[in-house]
Amino acid sequence: MNDLNTERLRIIALNAENLRLLISNQKQLESNLSLNESSTMLNQELKQAMEVRLSKVLMDDKQKYFWHTNWLIVSKDINKIIGGIMIKGPPNNNGEVVIGYYTNAEHQGNGFMTEAVGNFKNWLLTNDDVIYVIAYTEKDNIASHKVLEKNNAELYKETEALFFWRFSLNTP
């Protein structure tokens, strides 16, 4: 699996070994990937999410792990991890894939996630089996809403707590 690249970012799919290191020994992961050391480590909630990702990566065949893993978002300028993005499994019968993402606090507000999500959804929509890229956000997560709005996501559903957004091939 090749990395994805934007003007300012590298987006790196983590294999099982590297995903395990992200959870348990981020400094070693950064060393293995020749990255500068980040001051931010995963919080407990993200570690639990990564453990779920890891269990799915280990169950899938080696060629398809990218559907389940975390992808590191690395700033090219400082060569540090600034966040992550993930696909929560292969396309369902409706051609939908769900993504989730996070930005480390010290890198928020710089447009990195807008750039990463735009690149990632464009890449996903080149897959013949993907018709929609879905993201859901808590209603009070204004920063995440802005990321999706700037990438022309369609708000198509809501629950008491969440907004559901989607991109399709028709999304500009």
UniProtKB/TrEMBL annotation:
InterPro entries: Acyl_CoA_acyltransferase (IPR016181), GNAT_dom (IPR000182), N-acetyltransferase (IPR051531)
SUPFAM superfamilies recorded: Acyl-CoA N-acyltransferases (Nat)
Domain N-acetyltransferase: start-end pairs: 33-172
GO terms, molecular function: acyltransferase activity, transferring groups other than amino-acyl groups
Coiled coil: none
Name of the protein: GNAT family N-acetyltransferase
Higher taxonomy: Bacteria, Bacillati, Bacillota, Bacilli, Bacillales
